[in-house]
Specification:
Layout (H helix, E strand, L loop, with lengths): L1 H16 L6 H44 L5 H26 L4 H19 L5 H12 L1
Amino acid sequence: MSSTSTSIYAKLRHFVWGKRPATPEERKLLIKLDLMILSYVCISYFTNYLDRANLNNAYVSGMKEDIHYKGNDFTYANSLFTAGYIVGQLPSALILSSNRVPPRVWLPGCVFAWGVLTLGLACECCWAGVSAAWEEAVS
């Protein structure tokens, strides 16, 4: 029984982590690469999540009155935001998998574009401006 669970564990470990490094130097290099890439991805995801959460916090803190949202405008804005986020994942995955643009250029470019679009929404003063900005970004 224990040899079966060991072989399953070994197969699972090999599937998730791949082949073990042959030398200690290779192991150190892989750990350094994993830490650098994982740190960048975690920080990028955190800032993205913070941006999404701040929309809700701003709405509760008075954005509704400042932008003159009525009815379901906030729900539509959140839906447009999520739809854009989902639609943008497929082209991004295709670009990265095609190897036409290296990830070291593509990922920072996406984070920069996200920041520019977020700052652009700061200038909007009504629901019509937010929806128009989204339509411009899509087309």
